[in-house]
Amino acid sequence: MAQPPKKRKKWPWILLAVVVVMILGCVGIFTMVIGGTKEALDTAGDTAAGKNAVAGAMGQPARDGKFEFTVKSMDYTKTSVGQSVLAVKAQGTFCIVTMTIKNIGDEAQTFDGTSQKAYDAKGTQYSDDLEAELAVNGDASTFLQQINPGNQVTGKLVYDVPKGTKLTSIELHDSMFSSGVKIPLK
């Protein structure tokens, strides 16, 4: 007597199909999210002149996103900032950049001094020294300061650079995700 043919089980194939559809769906969602995020990052800080474009000069307003920045002055004369116990000593010398940040948007925007970068003539990037920034701005005017539409704050960013180093530009950002705008420093 011949045995009847074995029935193939369908559930492994159905399970495999479900897993494949889930993986493809996740890849599709991931691609859309990354693509959307990349597009948002690419356009977040673009200026009319283009990404990271040099925008004017010291004393002239330059825009990135919802902020308009005006760099007023630079000071290389300090090797220590703050008072007594709270004083912060530079490893080299401090370059203190005084600026005005104005919210040109239609909602509150938080300014973060640590998102701002400075460069020397060789293109070496320097980060804002948060501890020195807090010491020099006794009122914390540039540390995570929320600025309402139409309002502006004046504060100082502090860069600890090797002695003899001169910064040639500063890249200012409306947020850590924006492209930024470069302003030459003189």
UniProtKB/TrEMBL annotation:
Keywords attached to this entry: Membrane, Signal, Transmembrane, Transmembrane helix
Residue ranges of every copy of the DUF4352 domain listed in the record: 58-180
Organism domain of life: Bacteria
InterPro entries: DUF4352, Immunoprotect_excell_Ig-like
TM spans (from-to): 12-34
Entry-linked Gene3D superfamilies: 2.60.40.1240
Coiled coil: none
Protein name: DUF4352 domain-containing protein
Species of provenance: Paractinoplanes aksuensis
